[in-house]
Design brief:
alpha+beta; 8 strands; Alpha-Beta Plaits; about 15% strand; 2 domains; single chain; two-stranded antiparallel sheet
C-alpha cells in the first residue's frame, strides 16, 4: 500500500516532461544509439547547445526561463576559451581571452571555480530534464550563444 502512495505522490510532483521521460524509460527495450530528427512543428523537443567561449554571463537566459533550466555556474570555463568559436562581440571579453592565452603555458584542462557569482563570468549549463526547448533563452541571448537544434538524443534519457 505504501508503494502506491509513494507512486501517486511522485506523479503529482512530476512535470509533464519528467512523466514523459519516465514513460520512455519504461517502454524502451534497449537504450537508443542515435539521435532522431524532430519533426518540423513539434515543439518541446530538441537539443540545446551553447558556445561557452562567447557567453558573457549576463544571466538573461536564467531570468527568462520559467523552469530554471539554464544555470550560470560559478565556474570560469578556461578550456572553452581555447576553442575557435567565431567572433567574440564583447571587446572586454576578447581582450581577456587573448590575455589568458598569452599567459598560458599549455591549454587548461578544466574550469576553475569562482569565489562568488561574478556577472560576466561563469559557465552556462542547461538541465535537459527541465528544458522544454521553448526557445525563450535562445531569443533572449544578446550574444546568440544558445541554439536549439531540431534533434533529440533519446540516449540522454537513460543517463543517470
Amino acid at each position: 500500500m505504501s508503494d502506491t502512495t509513494n507512486e501517486s505522490e511522485t506523479e503529482e510532483t512530476q512535470s509533464k516532461r519528467e512523466k514523459l521521460v519516465d514513460l520512455i524509460r519504461k517502454i524502451a527495450i534497449k537504450k537508443p544509439e542515435k539521435v532522431i530528427v524532430v519533426p518540423e512543428g513539434l515543439r518541446g523537443f530538441g537539443k540545446v547547445t551553447a558556445l561557452q567561449s562567447i557567453c558573457i554571463g549576463c544571466h538573461k537566459c536564467e531570468e527568462v526561463c520559467q523552469l530554471d533550466a539554464p544555470l550560470i555556474e560559478n565556474k570560469f570555463d578556461l578550456p572553452s576559451l581555447f576553442e575557435d568559436s567565431g567572433e567574440i562581440k564583447s571587446e572586454n571579453r576578447r581582450l581577456l581571452i587573448n590575455f589568458i592565452k598569452q599567459l598560458a603555458v599549455k591549454k587548461p584542462l578544466e574550469a576553475i571555480s569562482l569565489p562568488a557569482p561574478l556577472r560576466g563570468f561563469g559557465r552556462l549549463c542547461v538541465a535537459i530534464e527541465k528544458c522544454i526547448t521553448c526557445g525563450d533563452c535562445e531569443e533572449t541571448c544578446p550574444e546568440k550563444v544558445i541554439e536549439i537544434k531540431p534533434i533529440f538524443d533519446l540516449g540522454l534519457i537513460f543517463q543517470e
